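Need a sequence for this fold. Nothing fancy.
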């Protein structure tokens, strides 16, 4: 499929910013006084994390985990965890941040891997949720927008690594 210049807008910049502000307030309220570590799933989480952390005015630390499962527009079904968090997670409240919850395989695999570090809790926060695609018994504790079963790009989400820089969430025509 060709790279098109202007994918169709599904969620615009303003809506993203407004929703992230609300999510930030909820997270702030729920984690006040707790030892919080945000663990972000590279690479799709980058813009979302950058905007979200500035809406959470309480002390917390940030770490990253690198996972990959998609080739073209299709999930390969196997989640590769390419790198794990470096900071101590024991007895800390972990909030996993990802761009999208699709089949649920990625966050299920990462949660299981992090559980071995004995955190106080693990919860999930995603910008987008595609519940119709779920194959794993996992839900998002915090979700920005529920979207239909369409392949989306932008604001961190890629198609073969491109489009992460779009400031909005857009859809590509199906092949
Ligand atoms: P899951 O493991 O199927 O839940 O997929 C999660 C990962 O697949 C996300 O972190 C994304 O990187 C990728 N992904 C799922 N759906 C889309 C999409 O519509 N566009 C781009 N990437 C997607
Ligand atoms: Mg991806």
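Here you go.
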């Amino acid at each position: 499929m060709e790279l098109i210049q202007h994918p169709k807008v599904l969620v615009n910049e303003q809506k993203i910013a407004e929703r992230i502000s609300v999510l930030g307030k909820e997270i702030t309220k729920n984690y006040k006084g707790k030892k919080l570590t945000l663990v972000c799933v590279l690479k799709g989480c980058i813009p979302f994390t950058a905007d979200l952390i500035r809406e959470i005015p309480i002390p917390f630390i940030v770490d990253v985990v690198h996972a990959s499962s998609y080739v073209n527009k299709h999930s390969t079904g196997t989640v590769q965890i390419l790198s794990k968090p470096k900071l101590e997670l024991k007895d800390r409240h972990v909030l996993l941040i990802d761009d999208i919850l699709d089949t649920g395989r990625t966050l299920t695999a990462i949660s299981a891997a992090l559980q071995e570090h004995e955190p106080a809790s693990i919860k999930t926060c995603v910008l987008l949720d595609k519940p119709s695609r779920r194959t794993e018994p996992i839900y998002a504790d915090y979700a920005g927008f529920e979207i239909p079963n369409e392949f989306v790009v932008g604001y961190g989400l890629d198609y073969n690594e491109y489009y992460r820089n779009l400031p909005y969430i857009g859809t590509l025509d199906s092949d």
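For context: The longest strand covers residues 61-71.
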